[in-house]
Amino acid sequence: MTQDVGVPQADVVLGADGLARPVWASKDPLLREYYDTEWGMPVRDERGVFERLSLEAFQSGLSWATILRKRPGFRAAFEGFDPDRVAGYGESAVARLMGDAGIVRNRRKIEATIGNARATVACRDREGLATLVWSFQPEQTPRPQVAADVPSSSPESVALAKELKRRGFAFVGPTTVFALMEAIGIVDTHLVGSHRRGSSGVWPH
Questions:
Q1: I want to staple 25 with a disulfide (CB 3.0 to 4.6 A). Which of 21, 96, 100, 157 is the partner?
Q2: 190 annotated as a binding-site residue
Q3: pTM of this prediction?
Q4: What is the residue extent of each domain of the chain?
Q5: Alpha helices in the chain (DSSP H)
Q6: What angle do helix axes 64-77 and 29-37 make, rounded to 10 degrees?
Q7: Per the CATH hierarchy, to which homologous superfamily does domain 46-183 belong?
Q8: Which residues bind Zn(2+) (predicted)?
Q9: Tens-place pLDDT, residues 120-177
Q10: 8 A C-beta contact, residue 103 and residue 84
Q11: Helix, strand, coil percentages for the chain (3-state, nearest 5)
């Protein structure tokens, strides 16, 4: 792939397959697969947005690789991240989840996920979670040349975090919300030299 002028090889690595990726997605096969097939692609359904919001909250303070490796366990433990089912969890479910080695056993995050499921269900009385989150799509997306150019938050993520908290969501700070926006395609923070830049179809290359 032809690299844009000014993109250093230290930030974009050319793989054995001839495709350019950021360093974080260039070595670990699991992260590479996630980067190549899922990260930054549009997610517009309620369950999909709820799952990714939940995983981003659990990731706080941990590496994304840790969460990704436990993702099958999370999906099993939270019944496919079905908001209706998770919203009905009580103390016995919390105890079950705290004993599940397949997930991150953090009581505050588990309880926040249950509360967020209830908030997700409540959002249906208005526009719904997915529509709400996508309504904060900015007019422009970042065009990072190097990793240091990728922001950790934005005015839109600050505003969305505030709105989500107002509606009863927890663990939804501006940084976590911006990571969600990156993950589901609301913004495109693929480095300009990456083979995935512009692949979502939401933003031009």
A1: 21
A2: yes
A3: 0.92
A4: 46-183
A5: 29-37, 46-59, 64-77, 83-87, 91-98, 107-123, 129-134, 155-166, 174-183
A6: 70
A7: Hypothetical protein; domain 2 (1.10.340.30)
A8: 190
A9: 999 999 999 999 999 999 999 999 999 999 999 999 999 999 999 999 999 999 999 9
A10: no
A11: 50, 5, 45
Active site residue 35: no
Measured CA to CA, the distance from residue 184 to residue 112 in angstroms comes to: 21
Of 101, 112, 4, the closest CA to residue 54 belongs to 112
The catalytically annotated residue of 24, 64, 111, 163 is 64
Flag whether pLDDT at 12 surpasses 70. Answer: yes
Share of the chain above pLDDT 70, in %: 95
Mark whether 56 is an active-site residue.
yes
pLDDT category at 4 given cuts 50, 70, 90 is very low
Give yes or no: 64 in active site.
Answer: yes
| CA-to-CA separations, 9 to 2, 12, 18, 122, in angstroms, rounded | 12, 5, 13, 47
Model confidence over 36-60: pLDDT tens digits?
A: 999 999 999 999 999 999 999 999 8
Determine the Cα–Cα distance for residues 131 and 45; give it in Å rounded to an integer: 9
Q: What is the pLDDT of residue 10?
A: 56
Q: Residue 60 corresponds to which tokens in the numbers above?
A: 């706080």
Given a contact cutoff of 8 angstroms between Cβ atoms, the answer to whether 94 and 111 are in contact is yes
Give the pLDDT confidence score for residue 204 in this predicted structure. Answer: 78
